[in-house]
Amino acid sequence: MAKILIVDDEKNIIKTLSAILQDENHIVYSSENGDEALQFLRKNDVDLIILDVWLPDIDGIEILERIKKTTPDIAVIMISGHGSIDIAVKSTKMGAFDFLEKPPSMERIITTVNNALEQIRLRRENIKLLKDSMLEDEMIGVSPAIMEVKTIIDKAAATSARVFITGDNGTGKELVAKAIYRKSSRSDKPFIKVNCAAIPDELIESELFGHEKGSFTGAINRRLGKFELANKGTLFLDEICDMSQSAQAKVLRVLQEQQFERVGGVETITVDVRVISATNIDVKTAIDEGKFREDLYYRLNVIPINVPQLSERQEDIAALTEYFLEKFCKEHGLGTKDISDSGMQFLSQYSWPGNVRELKNIIERLSIMVQKDIIERDDIQKYIESHDYDDILSKDISSFKKAKEQFEKDYIIRSLKNNEKNISTTAKQLGIERTNLHRKIKQYNINVDKI
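Given the sequence above, the corresponding structure tokens read:
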């Protein structure tokens, strides 16, 4: 059952359509002019509108434009007794689900309405699933470092300002972006993520802005880009500093004008998108090296958020551990398990170079591999391979930063050995992108062939 509004100045059309739709168990409202319809929509929720192009007071195309600006989730089917291809094309480009000529057949009406309602249902279901998935790994912790982040999230969520998130791999930058989205006024609109590091330079512009059919080899159909798909919602640009220079210039234009053209297209697309960006790279260095545009950074960095390393919020480790252990035991049907005091002490003292992501992976591994109800310190040491950790602590390294870098280098080398030098498998195990692993290998001057 759906709520459907029919807007038409022909009483016979309203009567006929109402009878058809009521027979399908829908709730039907009607209006004979545009102004009355718009007033009705201000006070009432509907799922679908059947809208005549020619009305006595307001042009139907203008009403469609207003509806799509204020309530873009409502499906609109345009109808007209004097239709033309130009009007049909224009209305569908503006967001109408379909265009029907009067008098439409009963079969055509029922089919078109059902298809439109199915699209609405899938869209709402996807948004609900997205929200549910976002709640799975909420930001756990009450340390001063994480509470500061939560405070900024609340302030940012109350606005539509752009947010720039920085932090090491595995600290939870995507969780921060999702928390802002979930608490914002756009939470019932799309949340679209783009991992800029995972898309080849030659495809990033098509991914962001879409392309027209035949615009390049392999473009067999028109494709909508992420900016267009995120209209009225939120676009999360992860690993933004890995974006190509050409794409950076186009993103800058979108931020300035809220407009762009698809690759190979001439039509100007206007969007209303909130952009949240994230990177694990030192932005100042990327700017100094000419890899990232300074003017783009200032456009994106309206509200900065730095997500702390897990080593900076050690008081949260126990709460995170208990949360992940309960989650994975339930998820894998393993019953209830606990971690001994000595085991928890070990986890709290470990440096966690992979941050929360590493802790999450280790706890899932322990929940599955340890058959006992109580997970002991020895179990944790076995699966975390702590002997390398103890070796590093015993080395005479002057600074914490060097110690951390040495640990990360050794950790990557050990993982590459365990995975027979397979980059993809190693990156998956470490919970990072291949491009990030390649960057770390280059940074630490690791000769993979000699491992």
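The chain has three domains: 3-124, 137-308, 385-451. Try to locate this feature in the token string yourself.
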